[in-house]
Each structure stands twice: as structure tokens, then as C-alpha cells.
Amino acid sequence: MKNIAAMNKEQLDDLTSKYYRGKTSLEEEAILFEHYNGSPANALSDSGKAQFTYFKTKREEEPTAAFDDRVELLWMDAPATKAIHLHLMLRIAAVVIVALGLGWYFLAEKNASVMHTVSTTTGEQIRIVLPDSTVVWINEMTVLQYDNNFQQQQRNVWLKGEAYFEVHSDTLNPFMVHTGEVSTTVVGTAFNLRGYDNEKTIALDVTHGRVRFGANKKVDVLKGQGARFDLRHHRVETTPSNPNANAWKTRQLIFEDAALRDVLRDLEHYFHVSFEAEDPALLHCHFKATFQNATVEEILNAIDYSLHGRHAFQHGKYILSGQNCKEK
Amino acid sequence: MHSEEFKNNVLPLKGALYRFAKSLLANAQEAEDCVQEIFLKLWTKRASLSAVVNLKAYAMQMTRNLCLDKLKNAKHHMLDVEQVTVASDVNLHSQLEAREAVAYLEDLVKKLPELQRTVIHLRSVEGLETNEIAEITGMRIEHVRVTLSRARITLRQQYEKHRRHE
Questions:
Q1: Which of the residues A16, A45, A154, A290 has an alpha carbon 20 to 30 A from that of A165?
Q2: Which chain B positions have a beta carbon within 8 Å of A70's beta carbon?
Q3: Are A186 and A198 in contact (CB under 8 A)?
């Protein structure tokens, strides 16, 4: 403490007590800042040293480089801006915002103004913020589009694939997601919507608030509920919400005493591999567990353990075998 | 304010707005979203910005309001709890010790009442004058000083208590 800023102990004590009384000027605080950040780290038992070391690290915090890109886009008519990648290894370059090519295409098709398109490839997930502050997590192989004058009238987006929406509340301007013939209308809420081209249903799961969902006939879906639209029979029905609907985003799988049939369906969605039970009776066994960031092997080992079974990987799929659990 | 002016005057505020939002929201990603929203708001009302005397204070005020709104609406929101590693009896060397002290203070600051947290951040991290802080928070200047003093003393007491129990 002796060598720094030509300050003796008395002066330091004066300044310090003034500091704690809230009476120091900015200049005096700058002197304390210099003093403490020049003193050796072993003085950390001193609360003043600790406070000013903390302030120094705080002053050095800056937003990420990706943030600069987002801000850059603000004055280009405020399109959706990229947020943070969920997959670290995938870089921003992978995100394609097709402004011109597809824009013209939709100009002709919908005779509306320019469309913004955000798309993801296999294994890619991104999170974007729309001009109305709605946050959208986009799962892999998905295309999300929205109008240039998005905010002026109704908030319309078009989805092919899967996304989780946290819709910014605005009762005057409903938010609509169009998935083929099905539309999902909300004012402010959070929900997961899955509508891949190669699947038979469009699946909605509501986390917060209330959603209006369907094609010609629409249903109201509340928090904790889900709805499935059957694309073959064009019918909509409500279901309990699937707790794993947005597992792709949270990396968490929850099975609350679920039938193995449902467990395997969720695992198929999550890991993109197929499962089969040697004895179909196994599919009615129930399983309860929660996984975070787990691999398929870890989960199967847990299932084996709880159902006294085994698993093997054959011909591109996992085969589960074991005794029928009803004997227990 | 046209776009060139906007870039020169508003963009340089991003670090300060980000740090402020982060201190209130305790989450880096949400802080970035918040600042983006503020920039968007400022950009849409850029025509009237020339009339604003202290742009930084004005933007900080907007940031605080937005963050407080977000905190109010997000009931599911939780402070991220375990950034602080519990001190072990390993002989830490000085760098580790500094990091640990910083993490501990971070935790203490998070636990301060919002107003104290705001005031100490604006003062000690952003280096603002008391009258600017009064403008941003809508407090009287004397109240700013008292709040600042309380926050500093609480940090000292809690920190010393923590050192004694180590």
C-alpha cells in the first residue's frame, strides 16, 4: 500500500471514509480506483480493494461481436436480427437471410412487399428477435418468413418446420403463424409449433397464455395444453401439452410416468433415430425420469435399468428388449 | 437526427447500455436483446432525438424502464444462482483470489435492492455524476448520495463477513 499514487495512510483513510458516506467526487473516486487497482492482489482482504477490482472488471464488459451484427441491421429497414447461436460450432455464416431472391418470388406470389426469410439447415438452431420484440427459437431444417411491413398491421409469419415463439404482448395487433392451411393466432404468449412437410400432424404446445389454432374450424388452446392438426383428415383435436415439445431448445427431456411408446416417440424426435420394441407389450411400460443434455446411450441405459431390459443398435435402429413389466 | 448522426451519437452508447441492462437483468443474452430493443426504439424516434439534451442519460433511463418492465413480466425469471464458486481450502493464487472476490461481489451486488444496485452501477462502473443519476432514476440528488452510501456500506459489511467466515 505504500508505493501507489503518492498517498499516505491518513489520506487514504480520509478518502475511504468519505467514499462510504457517499460524499466523494468522481475525481476522488478515480484516485481510489487507481490506487486499489494498482495495489497487489494479496490485499483483497480489504473490502475497498475488492470493490474497486470488481468495478474494474465490470467496466470491461462489452456485448458480443454477434451483437454488433444485429445492430448493424437496424437501419436496413429493421429486419429480424440474429441473436445467439444455440449450437456454438455453427457460425453465423450458416444463417441465410435471403432478401432478394426469395423476396422477388414472394412478391409475385403474394403480391405483398418484400418478405424476410430466415432458414436453418440440418443440425442448426438459431434464435432471432422480430421487429416487435417477439423472440423465436428456430429448430433445424426450418424456414420462417415474415412481411417487411410486419409491424404496421397484423403480425404475420409463415413457418415450415419447428419453432418456439415468445410472442411480445400487443392486444391490438394479433400475431399469426401460418403453417400451410393451419393458422395459429395469439396476442402475447409462448408456444412451440411443429409442422414439418414430411409429418402427418402439425403440433402445438402452449407454455404461457392462450392460442387460437386450426384451419376452418379453430380451437382455443390454453397454457399447459396442446393441439394436433391431422393433415390427412384436416381435423384438429386438443391434447395435454407434451412436456418435451421444446426439448430441442431446452435440451431437457422429462418423462412423468410416461408410457414407453410416448418416451420413444419423443426420443425419435429429439435424436432423429428410430426405436423398436422386441415385445410390443414393452411399449405399455411406464417410465419416469428427467434428463439434461443426455446422450441416447445414457437415456437407454436408464430405461434398461428401470425396466430390467437391454438394448442393441441394429440396422440403423435401436431395438429394446426385456420382460414385460406387468409381472412386477 | 439522420442516420449518420445517429450512428455517431447513439451507437457508442451500446457498451454502457449493455452493462446497465446486464446489471439489472443478471443475464448477458437478455441484456443484449434489451439494448437492441432500445436501439430500435431510438431509431424509430430519431427525428425527435435532437431535442434531447443528454442523450446518454435519456437512453439509460429508457433502458432501466424496459428492464424493470421485463423483470416484472417475467415471473419465471430467476437470477442465475451459482456463478460463484464456493471457496475451497486449496491454496489459491492471487489471480484466482481476485476472480473469486469479483464473483462474490457480483453476487452481493445482485442481492442489493434494485435502486441501490442501479445507483452503484451508474456511479462506479459508468462514472456518472450524481445529477445524471438523479435524472435517470428520478431521484433527488441527496437521495442518490444516501443510496450510494448505503450500497457501499452493505457491500463492505457483507464482504468482510464473508472473509471472516472463510
A1: A290
A2: 32, 36
A3: no
**What pLDDT sits at residue A144?**
93
Helical axes B55-73 vs B28-44, angle rounded to 10°: 130
Between CA A288 and CA A292, with CA A290 as vertex, the angle to 5 degrees is: 160
Query: Whose grid coordinates read 443440425?
Result: A123
B27-82 residue pLDDT tens: 888 899 899 889 988 888 888 888 888 899 999 999 999 998 888 876 544 443 33
Using an 8 Å CB-CB cutoff, list residues of chain A that contact chain B. 19-23, 26, 29-30, 40-42, 44-45, 47-48, 50-51, 53-55, 57-59, 61-64, 67, 70-71, 74-75, 78, 81, 83-84, 129, 131, 133, 135
Q: Which amino acid is at B150?
A: R
Report the first-to-last Cα separation within chain B, whole angstroms.
55
- Measure the CA angle with vertex A95, ends B44 and B67; round to 5°: 40
Q: What share of chain A is helix, strand, coil (3-state, %, to 5)?
A: 30, 35, 35
| ipTM score | 0.81
* Residue B25 contacts residue B70 (beta carbons within 8 Å): yes
Give me A158's grid cell: 409463415
Q: Give B52 to chain A, closest Cα distance, Å.
A: 21
pLDDT at A87 over 60: no
Residue of A293 and B76 predicted with greater confidence:
A293
To the nearest 10 degrees (0 to 180), the angle between helices B141-164 and B94-111 is: 130
Alpha-carbon dihedral A81, A84, A85, A86, rounded to 10 degrees: -130
For position A23, what pLDDT does the model report?
93
